[in-house]
Amino acid sequence: MSRSLRSEPGHPxxxxxxxxxxxxxxxxxxxRLHFALVGAPNxxxxxxxxxxxxxxxxxxxxxxxxxxxxxxxxxxxxxxLDISDLPGAYSLDPISPDEEISARFIRGELTKSRxxxxxxxxxxxxxxxxxxxxxxxxxxxxxPTLLVLTMTDELQARGGGIQTxxxxxxxxxxxVGVVGHRGIGVDELKGFLSKPxxxxxxxxxxxxxxxxxxxxxxxxxxxxxxxxRKKNTSTDRLDRILLHRxxxxxxxxxxxxxxxxxxxxxxxxxxxxxxxxIGLIADGVNAVVPSGFLRSLLVDGVIAGVGGVIVFIPQxxxxxxxxxxxxxVGYMARAAFAVDRLxxxxxxxxxxxxxxxxxxxxxxxxxxxxxxxxxxxxxxATILVAPFMTCxxxxxxxxxxxxxxxxxxxxxxxxxxxxxxxxxxxxxxAVSAVLAAAVLKRGMIRGKSLPFVMELPPYRxxxxxxxxxxxxxxxxxxxxxxxxxxxxxxxxxxxxLSYPKPENMxxxxxxxxxxxxxxxxxxxxxxxxxVDSESLSRSKVLEGSYAATIGRAIEPAxxxxxxxxxIGVGLIGSLAAREVVVATLAQIYAVQEEEEEEEDAxxxxxxMAREINPKTGKPVYDLATVLSLLVFFVYSLQCISTxxxxxRETNGYKWPTLAFFSMLAIAYVASLITYQVxxxxx
Amino acid sequence: MDxxxxxxxxxxxxxxxxxVMKSSETTVLSQLxxxxxxxxxxxxxxxxxxxxxxIMGFIAGTYVSVVRCAPLQDPREYELRGTRICLRNEExxxxxxxxx
Lengths: 682, 100
What we know:
The structure holds 2 protein chains of 2 kinds.
Chain A: H1 15-23, E1 34-39, H2 45-53, E2 70-75, E3 80-85, H3 97-106, E4 118-124, H4 132-139, E5 145-150, H5 152-157, E6 161-162, H6 164-171, E7 175-177, H7 186-193, H8 210-221, E8 225-226, H9 233-242, H10 247-266, H11 268-288, H12 293-310, H13 313-329, H14 331-345, H15 350-358, H16 363-369, H17 376-385, H18 394-405, E9 410-411, E10 415-416, H19 417-442, E11 453-455, H20 464-498, H21 517-520, H22 533-544, H23 546-558, H24 565-574, H25 580-593, H26 604-609, H27 623-635, H28 640-650, H29 654-681
Chain B: H1 14-23, E1 26-28, E2 37-43, H2 47-55, E3 63-69, E4 76-80, E5 83-87, H3 89-92, E6 95-99
Antiparallel strand pairs in B: 1-6, 2-3, 2-6, 3-4, 4-5
């Protein structure tokens, strides 16, 4: 899913500036104090940010890694403050695009943002001794600076301790210990925020080299830090298993496999609730709105289109939950560590793999996450292949086709055929992404890779509310897309599918279907048995619609893939966003078979299964066509939002254009092969 | 609190350093076996990445131990200054250490 982009298309800007376009509110009063949160990745900045801002986050960042500046408000009794949560950085001497954002933001070099009035350096108390280069780099800037020590509880639990009073005196700046997720120390911290100009300033010479800064820091710490006696044994024990050379990879794949199996079954119940809810809404509209243009637009266009897509929210939420949980718990860094060698053979590095895994939620956060990759060539290759990863926008398509047309068989009692096909599609996307990256990195964007330096944070249970909030952000972005792009596409498609009206059928939308019976009885190719006259006339409208004309025009190109013109219309619609194909098919088959005699209208898959190819007399959606369509969606880049983000992150139209057309070509060829092989062998 | 107890991150005096150098032999970090600890002598990598290694704590006198290697032997995980950092052997070659 994506959030709608607020950046003007065509406006050139570097990825370093882009975040400001998204986040800096233009109407912001200039008098408000503005604080920046800086710190190493995993220092607990985001947790602190949540604790300080509560529900007052104005702008949500992309779910997953914080790679963009997130702005929030802190309400104090007498004033309101702005706080910006910067991407994690070990140093203000940046090596990757995300660190560059932090460095430039804090120096006030980003064109569209105000320089912060004061800085809070957030340091994980358990890694205090390695944090001094950053602390002194910030102090050297000369801004009012406050040191926030997080995870002080963890330090104590491991038998260590820090005397913040002494540390504060030695450094000459305020030091506050907090436990962000329990809110401890947050009030004390807020007490400091109202008057940053009164904060004591350091009189220390911050030094110039890492050596000087470490030595200064070590001297200070020798007077106030009690080192933890115990190691983080639970992390060690977990890593011994999860990073085991044989067990580790097996566990990784087993987890993924079980998850995708479970996703299919767990999401089933909530999805059917949503389906019935949408059915109720449609019934309500049918009862209230008089038959005619408006009702048709609402029921056939909006509710069938948008509703057909919204049904998939439970599955999308589950994928997001998994990605954010793995990210929050610290497993993603392990995955990067474990596969770095493999990625190295492709010319990439471990963090590219994490970006690709994030693309399971959506290619957009995946592409954004590449900002943590220092090497520009590896980063570009990852950006270009991220759309191959099975994003949640493909879920509606996969679920519809698999649950509708793949037999529900069990093997060995636990392995489900549908779940397996599902998992295979995910695997196919991932393998294709990695291979494509290898081809790119060896061909077009060849070059020596930059070094790989990455921290492995201790395993920590993410706070449930933070994880759920991230999931909610993702779902909300999807809902926004459903409310804007998908809604618009649904309405456009409804117009294309409903007009022009056949000349002798102006009254098609009138309530009395009986007057249409004679006209409707003219022979059509559609399956007429058991369908009443009104729906027959509707299908006649569909046959003569603009959409049908367009669809028929491209049908010859699609026939070798096993697609008829209706699927073709769906594919054209899906160029805006993949889910639109479901919305379109929902409209096509809703138009065709509306006013069924059954109480409960059959679901979309069942309607599609009844579709007969007029030429062969066989079902349109046979297994070969379904597989071919699935493969098409594995490869094709049908997502305007992704293309827009790609343009922004690569500073131009060259790479998104290339990605779009090459992926379309790959999709066509792969579908062609799938259909031709499957229709002969199955 | 005993101040000296908490200063175990690094060797602080030149005399200490010299005595360590005499008693052990120099090697590079990538050659250090898993489970062993060493003291950093210098980083021979130039430029931004050399500096980044130093910012991450690979400076003269700092203790580094090898925690484990990845399933395919490379990269390896190191512990220093209370954190875990992974480096490819390619980069770890540029960190001179004294095994202890």
